[in-house]
């Protein structure tokens, strides 16, 4: 009876409140897509991260062809923009 979850007495600091997401791109980064060179270079204009555990991270990139495209921005995901072919050229600190 002492091992039931509601009876455990763990310090509150041992329970992680929020897991930090391992993101790839930040606002202001210059990038290009390996598979779609016709898009030209791009710049990251927006990033969004979910506050919910297991939530998604997105990045919006404006390419030279004038179109904005949205990609997954979490390294922990198999669909991360890094694995899809987005390559970081340089990071601009804003």
Account of the protein in words:
The structure is a single chain. With 94 residues, the chain is mainly β. The protein has one domain: SH3 type barrels, CATH 2.30.30. Helix content is 4%, strand content 31%. The protein has a 5-stranded antiparallel β-sheet with strand order 4-3-2-1-5. β1 and β2 form a beta hairpin. The longest helix has 4 residues. It starts with 29 loop residues before the first strand and ends with a strand.
Short note summarizing the structure:
The protein has one helix at residues 81-84, and strands spanning 30-33, 42-49, 57-63, 68-72, 86-90.
How is the secondary structure organized here?
Blueprint: E1 30-33, E2 42-49, E3 57-63, E4 68-72, H1 81-84, E5 86-90
Antiparallel strand pairs: 1-2, 1-5, 2-3, 3-4
């Amino acid at each position: 009876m002492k091992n039931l979850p509601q009876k455990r007495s763990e310090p509150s600091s041992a329970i992680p409140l929020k897991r930090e997401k391992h993101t790839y791109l930040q606002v202001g980064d210059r990038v290009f897509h390996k598979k779609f060179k016709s898009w030209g270079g791009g710049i990251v204009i927006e990033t969004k991260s979910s506050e919910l555990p297991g939530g998604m991270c997105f990045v919006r990139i404006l390419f030279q062809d004038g179109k904005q495209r949205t990609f997954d921005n979490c390294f922990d995901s198999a669909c991360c923009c890094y694995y899809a072919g987005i390559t970081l050229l340089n990071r601009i600190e804003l």
